[in-house]
UniProtKB/TrEMBL annotation:
Subcellular localization: Endoplasmic reticulum membrane
Pathway: Protein modification; protein glycosylation
KW Transmembrane helix (keyword) present: yes
Record-level Gene Ontology MF annotations: glucuronosyl-N-acetylglucosaminyl-proteoglycan 4-alpha-N-acetylglucosaminyltransferase activity; metal ion binding; N-acetylglucosaminyl-proteoglycan 4-beta-glucuronosyltransferase activity
Entry protein name: Exostosin-1b
Keyword Cytoplasm recorded: no
GO cellular component: endoplasmic reticulum membrane; Golgi apparatus
Pfam families: Exostosin_GT47, Glyco_transf_64
InterPro entries: Exostosin, Exostosin_GT47, GT64_dom, Nucleotide-diphossugar_trans
Region (Disordered): 31-52
Keywords for the protein's UniProt record, in alphabetical order: Disulfide bond, Endoplasmic reticulum, Glycoprotein, Glycosyltransferase, Manganese, Membrane, Metal-binding, Signal-anchor, Transferase, Transmembrane, Transmembrane helix
Reaction(s) the record says it catalyses: 3-O-{[(1->4)-beta-D-GlcA-(1->4)-alpha-D-GlcNAc](n)-(1->4)-beta-D-GlcA-(1->3)-beta-D-Gal-(1->3)-beta-D-Gal-(1->4)-beta-D-Xyl}-L-seryl-[protein] + UDP-N-acetyl-alpha-D-glucosamine = 3-O-{alpha-D-GlcNAc-[(1->4)-beta-D-GlcA-(1->4)-alpha-D-GlcNAc](n)-(1->4)-beta-D-GlcA-(1->3)-beta-D-Gal-(1->3)-beta-D-Gal-(1->4)-beta-D-Xyl}-L-seryl-[protein] + UDP + H(+); 3-O-{alpha-D-GlcNAc-[(1->4)-beta-D-GlcA-(1->4)-alpha-D-GlcNAc](n)-(1->4)-beta-D-GlcA-(1->3)-beta-D-Gal-(1->3)-beta-D-Gal-(1->4)-beta-D-Xyl}-L-seryl-[protein] + UDP-alpha-D-glucuronate = 3-O-{[(1->4)-beta-D-GlcA-(1->4)-alpha-D-GlcNAc](n+1)-(1->4)-beta-D-GlcA-(1->3)-beta-D-Gal-(1->3)-beta-D-Gal-(1->4)-beta-D-Xyl}-L-seryl-[protein] + UDP + H(+)
Ranges of residues in domain Exostosin GT47: 105-390
């Protein structure tokens, strides 16, 4: 009897094991020679943890699962293919699907596949490729590349779109360097199509990274993919308009508290939230307008509210609402992202996000809590109460941050692309990556290059945040282009005057003369070290190289024939210590728009208005030497070197682009004395009749590369305390400046 019981128990146990195996609940041990990746939770495959082989199915809206249209057009095989395409590489991370060794050997360089004859490319994708090819990351040699970008247009993968590229799967697989997508970056704005708008791209991306708009947190692979904003085809390639916040009004309230104007979807995905907006609309300070009048057959599907909504929709101007509202609602559309997001940022209208599950753009680096209100679609009715409860100090802070983020990362296609590449570079070169402060504070991550230094105190932008001051000494760099033939030459007088400054740490003479270096005894004896360096290739740009011998924060840049007294040098450096991120100096110039020629003009007229301070007598932070050398493209520096001109203009363009501020002019002992001397010098480049025309050309070439005119006009001149006051000269600290 007991034997029968044992057999019965064994039989039941065996049946249970077979049933569990059939259902996939238990994985039987099997030999595997392939490499097993670590799961998202960090669990190692060799541990006894259940393995679920079937991928999760994507969410399908409830109103489509049982419709005839859904069941007819989406077969089980198509559903399976979609799941496979979307989820196949979801476990990819930088340590498992990216080859770091290639980048360590070659540096972070990006290769763009050459375009093939017959391939159609949208204007937006052409702008993306142009931004990469114009950046400092670009290489035309695939053997030197760390990252690869397809020339095939992958932006619009909606099969109903005219921009959809057919047979992309075959074309991608045939690329000789594809390597299952390893070290590849794919840009995408639109994926999926009616009715469910999945995130399927229609081809196997393998181990490639995605720079994708409207990506969900479910499908986003942290520290591997990059979430980018949805932008229109009219979005500027370079430059872009500045934000619309021209001044800070206190209190920071506008005509409307909360606004929205856009399409309302009567059925399908994305319709729930927009259909419910009328519950919150009060036509006073909360104006949420929708229209059903879109699409070819909208009248066939219109509901009882359509006519009323359409009539009210037409009463309001969208731009007027945008610029006169404190908060702007950004609900999801058919996809998670919306054009309203960038529009709100630019208008300094604080975005109120209403798109559950959207991985916000550049979420890896940007703290969106400082610039937006993150709402919940399920709590729509609470949104007005929530935004009304935000204190006015917080509102002002949010609006200011929208302007910073817009201008730093979103105002052009180029900035969106460069931000994407910088994020990936920070992952690759993790030892020299940017901190959160560098990404989320002025001037932003694109201008703060971490390869320069890992310490924030070495940059001119963070002194106030860190509560520190720049080093109280400067290094003078004198640019010498004439041979040393007499002890009465201006360069020697200048050297002695600068050496007497109490703030001078050392003097560097950059010898860019064709003649041999003078003997050591030809230079006068001074109380500070004098270092003579032979210029690299004898070109103009060499004066802005980041020389290791410059050990101070401040650099006093001087032409060899500049005339300055010790008092003038001391005063200029004192002023610079209060404005370490700007150029501070003496000879000023200005720019203007010539409406007749429709180009930028350059003027040296002595007026109260200026936008540049020439680097023949100016103080600035040494970081700008590094930025000039490593940020600016070789095409601009080659222009400077070929003309032997415009290096001072280019430096002013760069610093104003970084700071969004003008330089600072300080008092001179004798107006424009250096310029008079320069004109009288036979060897001077200023005596060249083509010099002025070349500078006009430079202005327009530089403005074209920056995408806009970064120079800012100013009428401020800083004078010493009691300057020109009718008091005793003995009471004045910088008394020599007043003596003619």
């Amino acid at each position: 009897m007991q034997a029968k019981k044992r057999y019965l128990i064994l039989l039941c146990a065996g049946a249970c094991v077979l049933l569990l195996s059939f259902l996939g609940g238990v994985q039987l041990p099997a030999a595997s020679g392939g490499r097993q990746d670590r799961s998202r939770t960090g669990h190692r495959p060799d541990q006894p943890w259940p393995h679920f082989s079937d991928p999760l199915h994507p969410f399908v809206p409830w109103d489509h699962t049982d419709t005839e249209e859904y069941n007819v057009h989406v077969s089980p095989r198509q559903k399976r293919d979609v799941n496979t395409s979307v989820y196949k590489g979801r476990r990819c991370r930088m340590d498992s699907c990216f080859d770091f060794s290639v980048c360590q050997r070659r540096g972070f360089k990006v290769y763009v596949y050459p375009q093939q004859k017959g391939d159609k490319t949208s204007e937006s994708y052409q702008n993306i490729l142009a931004a990469i090819e114009g950046s400092r990351f670009y290489t035309s040699d695939p053997g030197q590349a760390c990252l690869f970008v397809l020339s095939l247009d992958t932006l619009d993968r909606d099969q109903l779109s005219p921009q959809y590229v057919h047979n992309l799967k075959t074309k991608v697989q045939n690329l000789p360097l594809w390597n299952d997508g390893r070290n590849h970056l794919i840009f995408n704005l639109y994926s999926g199509t009616w009715p469910d708008y999945t995130e399927d791209l229609g081809f196997d991306i393998g181990q490639a990274m995605l720079a994708k708009a409207s990506i969900s947190t479910e499908n986003f692979r942290p520290n591997f993919d990059v979430s980018i904003p949805l932008f229109s085809k009219e979005h500027p390639r370079t430059g872009g308009e500045r934000g619309f916040l021209r001044y800070n009004s206190i209190p920071p309230f506008r005509k409307y508290m909360l606004v929205f104007k856009g399409k309302r979807y009567l059925t399908g995905i994305g319709s729930d939230t927009r259909n419910a907006l009328y519950h919150v609309h009060n036509a006073e300070d909360v104006v949420l307008l929708t229209t059903c009048k879109h699409g070819k057959d909208w009248q066939k599907h219109k509901d009882a509210r359509c006519d009323k909504d359409n009539a009210e929709y037409d009463k309001y101007d969208y731009k007027e609402m945008l610029h006169n509202s404190t908060f702007c609602l950004v609900p999801r559309g058919r996809r998670l992202g919306s054009f309203r997001f960038l529009e709100a940022l630019q208008a300094a209208c604080v975005p109120v996000m209403l798109s559950n599950g959207w991985e916000l753009p550049f979420s890896e680096i940007i703290d969106w809590n400082t610039a937006a209100v993150i709402g919940d679609e399920r709590l729509l009715l609470q949104i007005p109460t929530t935004v009304r409860s935000i204190h006015q100090d917080k509102i002002l802070s949010l609006r200011q941050q929208t302007q910073f983020l817009w201008e730093a990362y979103f105002s052009s296609v180029e900035k969106i692309v460069l931000t994407t590449l910088e994020i990936i570079q920070d992952r690759v070169l993790e030892h020299s990556s940017r901190s959160s402060l560098m990404w989320n504070s002025h001037p932003g991550g694109l201008f703060a290059l971490p390869q320069y230094s890992g310490y924030l105190g070495d940059f001119p932008f963070y002194y106030a945040t860190l509560g520190i001051k720049p080093y109280p000494k400067f290094t003078a760099v004198i640019h010498a282009v004439s041979p040393l033939v007499s002890q009465s030459q201006p360069i020697l007088k200048l050297l002695l005057a600068v050496a007497k400054s109490q703030y001078c740490a050392q003097i560097i003479v950059l010898w860019n003369c064709d003649k041999a270096l003078p003997a050591k005894h030809r230079w006068p004896a001074t109380s500070v070290p004098v270092i003579v360096i032979e210029g690299e290739n004898k070109v103009m740009s060499s004066r802005f190289l980041p020389y290791d011998t410059i050990v101070t924060d401040a650099v006093l840049s001087l032409d060899e024939d500049t005339v300055l007294s010790t008092t003038e040098v001391d005063f200029a450096f004192t002023v610079w210590q209060s404005f370490p991120e700007r150029i501070v100096g003496y000879p000023a110039r200005s720019h203007f728009w010539d409406s007749n020629k429709e180009r930028w003009g350059y003027t040296s007229k002595w007026t109260n208005d200026y936008s540049m301070v020439l680097t023949g007598a100016a103080i600035y932070h040494r970081y700008y030497h590094y930025l000039y050398t490593n940020y600016l493209p070789s095409s601009l520096k080659n222009t400077v070197d070929q003309l032997a001109n415009c290096e001072d203009i280019l430096m002013n363009f760069l610093v104003s682009a970084v700071t969004k501020l003008p330089p600072i002019k300080v008092t001179q002992k004798k107006p424009n004395v250096s310029f008079v001397l320069l004109q009288s010098s036979r060897a001077s480049r200023w005596a060249d009749p083509d010099h002025f025309a070349q500078r006009q050309t430079c202005m327009n070439k530089f403005a074209s590369w920056f995408g806009a005119m970064p120079l800012v006009h100013s009428q401020m001149r800083l004078d010493p305390v009691l300057f020109k006051d009718q008091v005793s000269i003995l009471r004045k600290k910088y008394r020599d400046i007043e003596r003619l």
